[in-house]
Amino acid sequence: MRDSYVHISNPHLDNIKEDILYHFDLGTGTHDFPTLFGDVKFVCVGGSASRMKSFSQYIAGELKLGDPSDDIPNICAGTDRYAMYKVGPVLSVSHGMGIPSIAIMLHELIKLLYHAGCTNVTVIRLGTSGGIGLDIGSVVVTSQSVDASFRPQFEQIILGKRVVRCTELDEKLAKELLESSKEINQFNTVIGKTMCTMDFYEGQARLDGAFCFYTEEQKMQYLKEAYDAGIRNIEMESSVFAAMCKLAGLKAAVVCVTLVNRLQGDQITSTHEVLAEFQQRPQKLISHLIKKHLGKSEAS
C-alpha cells in the first residue's frame, strides 16, 4: 500500500523561517517534530482537556503501553488553550467547543503532522451530542456532516467572499467503526448524518435558552424534518472537522454518544455516573478499532 501523506496548501509557509504553532506552544525552531510526532498513526480529538487526558490513559492501558492510572504529561503545558497527550502512535488533543475553536486547533494540528512527516494518519473526533429519535446512550458514527439547513457543506467567509467546502467523511472507516461496535456488543451504534450548528441553544432549536422566538410546535416540526432527512444527532464541530481533514487528505471519522433524545426534551437529566459511562462509549469503540489496525500493521 502506498503511503498517504498529509497535505497542506499554503505557499506562504515556504517563506517562514520558523513555523510557530502558537496555540500549542510548539514551534519548528524549538521542537523536533519528526522525533516527537513522526510515528503518529491515530489522532483522537475531543472537546475537553480532561476527557482527552482520560482517553490517553485509557488507550495506554488498552495498548499495554502503560498503566491507565499513570499521569501522562501534557505536551501543550505552556498554554491553556488546548491540551495534547501522546501514547505510542496515538495522539490525543482537545479542541474546545464550537467551529472556531476546533478550526484553530486543526490548522495547527495539520501543520504539526506535516512537519513531522507523518503518513497514513487517521483522525477521529469523539464527543457528546444531542440525539434525534435515538435512545440516550446510543453512539452515532457520522456518515456526513450537514449544516442547520441540512446541506452537506461547510460555509466560511474568506476575504469577504463565501467559500463552501465539502463535508464528506471516510465511508469505509465509518463502516469499520460500526463493525467494531458489533464486535464489542455493549451499546447501540448507528451510522447517520450529523447536523453541525453554530450554537447550543437557538441553533439547535432548544426551548431553554435565554432567548427563544419560536414555538414548541415549530421546534418539533424542524427536528422531525431533520430526522426525515437522515440526521441522527446534533453537535457543533463536525462540518469544519470534515472539511479540513478532507483538504489535508486525512482519513477521518466522527463518533459521538447521545446524551438526550431531542424529540423528547432539551435538558440533559441523567446522573453524573450515567453520563460518565456514556462518555466512555466512544472511547471503547475507537480503542477497539485502533487495536485492530495496529495489530494488522504489526502482523504485516
Could you provide a short overview of the structure?
This protein has 300 residues and is of the alpha/beta class.
Record the SSE blueprint.
Layout: E1 20-21, E2 26-27, H1 33-37, E3 42-46, H2 49-62, E4 84-87, E5 90-94, H3 99-115, E6 122-131, E7 139-146, E8 153-158, E9 161-166, H4 171-184, E10 189-196, H5 216-228, E11 231-235, H6 238-247, E12 251-261, H7 272-299
Parallel strand pairs: 3-5, 3-6, 6-12, 7-10, 10-11
Antiparallel strand pairs: 1-2, 4-5, 6-11, 7-12, 8-9
Search tags:
300 residues, alpha/beta, five-stranded mixed β-barrel, 7 helices
Strand content: 15-25%
Compressed to H and E, one letter per element, the order equals EEHEHEEHEEEEHEHEHEH
Q: How would a crystallographer describe the biggest sheet? A: 5 strands, mixed, barrel
What Rg do the Cα atoms give?
19 Å
Mean pLDDT: 96
Give the number of DSSP strands.
12
| Overall spatial form | globular
Describe the structure in your own words.
With 300 residues, the chain is α/β, with parallel strands linked by helices. It has 7 helices and 12 strands. The strands form 3 sheets. A 5-stranded mixed β-barrel has the order 6-11-10-7-12, surrounded by 4 helices. Helix 2 (49-62) crosses helix 7. It starts with 19 loop residues before the first strand and ends with a helix. The mean pLDDT is 96.
